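U., I forgot to send this yesterday:
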Amino acid sequence: MAENHVKAAYLRAVAVDYAKHFIGTPYHWGGSNPMEGWDCSGFAVEILQGIGILPHGRDYSAHDLYTLFKPNVVALGYAGCLAFWLDASGHAVHVMLLIDNAHVIGATGGGSGTITEEDAKRQNAYVKMRNINYRRGTPAIVDPFKGVF
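Result:
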């Protein structure tokens, strides 16, 4: 049991470190790699696949990730958790990775019209670090590491 807790804590730290390396990568709608850029869910999936929490070869939307990890909702966020912003119907429309209890990293600033690096520059759409309150609404926080080990 303690070994599982230590492994999860280690992988949370690895996920945060890995995410930080991509700050400044352009946002790209539907993007799923550092060469073309990422959208919010593509970035979150890359981080979770990179550390072995999600299997490779599958694409997930923000809502798919939220549905997958919804049983792992936590009251207060901490490094390695995912923050999901939901619309009025409870559909996850944005996701970012917490790097501590008040800051997130993720692909943000773009939308469906952000498909080139020039679009990203024009819209200031990149992988960024932000205060968790940068968007309206309180995000739902989930721990993707709960129950994995």
